[in-house]
Design brief:
This protein is α/β, with parallel strands linked by helices and about 290 residues long. Among the domains are: about 5-115, Potassium Channel Kv1.1, Chain A, CATH 3.30.710.10; about 195-280. Helix content is about 50%, strand content about 5%. The protein has helices spanning about 35-40, 40-45, 70-80, 95-105, 110-120, 135-140, 140-150, 155-165, 180-210, 220-235, 240-245, 255-265, 270-280, 285; strands spanning about 5-10, 20, 25-30, 55, 60, 65. Strands 1-3-2-6 form a 4-stranded mixed sheet. A two-stranded antiparallel sheet has the order 4-5. The protein is elongated, with a radius of gyration of 27 Å.
Length: about 290
């Protein structure tokens, strides 16, 4: 069996620290013994860490490097997160699960805390009153966020992920997804279906009360408008989306515009109730069985 040739890390080169850690693909990372023990409860509990000895001013190889089961990419990423000399990177969807796995394995809570905080960071629009976590990791990758929350037992992150799952654009929950548990995925689907059903009931009520008297000339326009509202809300069931598409009624039909306006006004008293309901975090322990 071929062995991978050892090579030194450029981020943690020789002399960077007294401890040498070797990844499963041969990358050698040199790191501070005391910092590693301080940031990781696992390494803190070791009686002795391999160090590089120094004799007569010359560096001499000490004990064999610590053999790690992680790849060089994940090992470097782990060390970057616990080293204050390196800037902390943003969440990378391609490595976050492996990073959290290593953080849990070696008991480095600062990495898990960093993920829980930064998964929610956003740039909220100044003109929006939405509770949507725009451009946050949990918003752009709700399934992966939910998967990590279930796997690493992060209830608060899981609650936000479920809420995003229920109202995000459908493109963010279909296609290639991580190995999320079926129970967790179906929980998100159930919450989403409940929200879609609530909007469809509202649309049906508006149609019955205010659009059933449509004149013959605008009936086709009404049908097109109704189809557009229903299909849009099914793709992204949240209030601001519903309100936006609801206001895009047929521009060439005065009767249609007036009827749609009446329909929306009749639900204005429910607007804050709907927005409040959509901002509430699901009860995590009642919805997802957390499996270690």
């Amino acid at each position: 069996m071929e062995t991978t040739a050892a090579r030194d890390s450029t981020l943690f080169p020789p002399g960077y620290g007294e401890v040498t850690l070797q990844s499963n693909d041969g990358l050698l990372c040199h790191f501070s013994r005391h910092l590693l023990a301080y940031m990781s409860n696992f390494f803190r509990g070791m009686f002795e860490l391999p160090v590089v000895e120094r004799q007569a001013g010359h560096q001499v190889e000490g004990l064999v490097p610590l053999q790690m089961t992680e790849s060089g990419q994940i090992l470097e990423l782990f060390l970057v997160h616990i080293d204050p000399k390196h800037p902390t990177p943003s969440i990378d969807p391609s490595t976050i699960e492996a990073l959290l796995e290593m953080a849990q394995k070696y008991e480095a809570p600062t990495i898990t805390e960093w993920f829980m905080k930064n998964a929610l960071l956003e740039e909220r629009s100044k003109v929006s009153t939405s509770s949507v976590l725009s451009e946050a990791f949990i918003s752009t990758h709700p399934v992966l966020a939910l998967h990590c929350a279930v796997r690493f037992n992060l209830p608060s992150t899981g609650q936000f992920a479920l809420r995003e799952f229920a109202g995000c654009n459908v493109s963010r929950i279909i296609g290639p997804v991580p190995s999320i548990s079926l129970h967790a995925y179906l929980t998100g689907i159930r919450l989403r279906e409940e929200r879609i059903n609530a909007y469809e009931n509202m649309i049906e009520e508006m149609t019955t009360k205010h659009i059933s008297t449509a004149c013959g000339s605008c009936l086709v326009l009404f049908a097109r408008w109704l189809f557009r509202v229903q299909s849009t809300v099914r793709k992204e069931p949240r209030w601001e989306v519903f309100e936006r598409v609801n206001n895009s009624c047929p521009p060439d039909c005065t009767h249609a515009r007036h009827s749609v306006s009446l329909g929306l006004d009749s639900h204005n008293m429910d607007r804050w109730g709907i927005q409040h309901a959509e901002s509430i975090l699901p009860v995590w322990t009642d919805l997802v069985n957390i499996v270690p």
